[in-house]
Write a structure and sequence with these properties.
Layout lengths: L1 H15 L12 H8 L2 H9 L15 H7 L3 H9 L14 H8 L2 H9 L14 H7 L14 H10 L6 H4 L1 H9 L3 H9 L2
Length: 193
């Protein structure tokens, strides 16, 4: 039943998404290195003066966002050392922390919080990092709706315990977590344990 629901959600997302991304399709050497996890090249480029915040690619993301999209924890670490902006926003006013939380990348969430990312920030749709972690993301490259991202939720609540209130998560992500059988996530939201 859960697999059928996931497949239906994927189909709906595919139908709702536009038929093509707009924006520049080119990348930069910094973005290429960040996405590939090539930290030696990334360090070399940034040390030589390359911009750690230059936007490019189909989504016009920063190198930090591209590294998060590909789950490249060490690239994130290098970019943060070179002053990558944790507060930079996507076209939909989302940010790196919401992306990492939605993908369930707890180590990256820790790094971003250590670098000053705001766990209470909400995008244009009202989504916070916590609601993204609880509800998951519909990104076609890493669909995490219905995944129990317990460690990511735990990290966010440890760093920002005031986020636990129901108003900070919303009903839909909590319903998704319950439906998916994510009892540990629900317990963390309700009791903190």
């Amino acid at each position: 039943m859960l697999n059928a629901m996931k497949n239906l959600l994927l189909l709906l997302v595919a139908l709702i998404l536009p038929n093509g991304c707009t924006g520049p399709r080119t990348t930069t050497p910094v973005i290429d290195a960040a996405r590939a996890g090539n930290t030696v090249e990334l360090e070399r480029l940034l040390s030589a003066g390359a911009d750690a915040n230059q936007r490019a690619g189909v989504n016009d993301w920063t190198p930090l966002m591209h590294a998060i999209h590909k789950g490249q924890t060490e690239s994130v670490r290098v970019l943060l050392r070179h002053r990558a902006d944790v507060h930079a926003l996507t076209a939909h006013r989302s940010n790196a922390l919401i992306m990492a939380a939605g993908y369930g990348y707890a180590p990256i969430v820790r790094l971003l919080l250590d670098a000053g990312a705001d766990p209470a920030y909400r995008d244009d749709n009202g989504q916070s990092a916590l609601s993204a972690a609880v509800g998951g993301t519909t990104d076609i490259d890493r669909f995490t709706v219905g995944k129990c991202q317990t460690e990511t939720v735990r990290v966010l609540l440890e760093r920002a315990p005031k986020l636990r209130a129901k108003a900070n998560v919303g009903d839909m992500p909590t319903r998704i977590a319950r439906f998916a059988g994510c009892s540990e996530v629900v317990a963390l939201l309700e009791t903190g344990r």
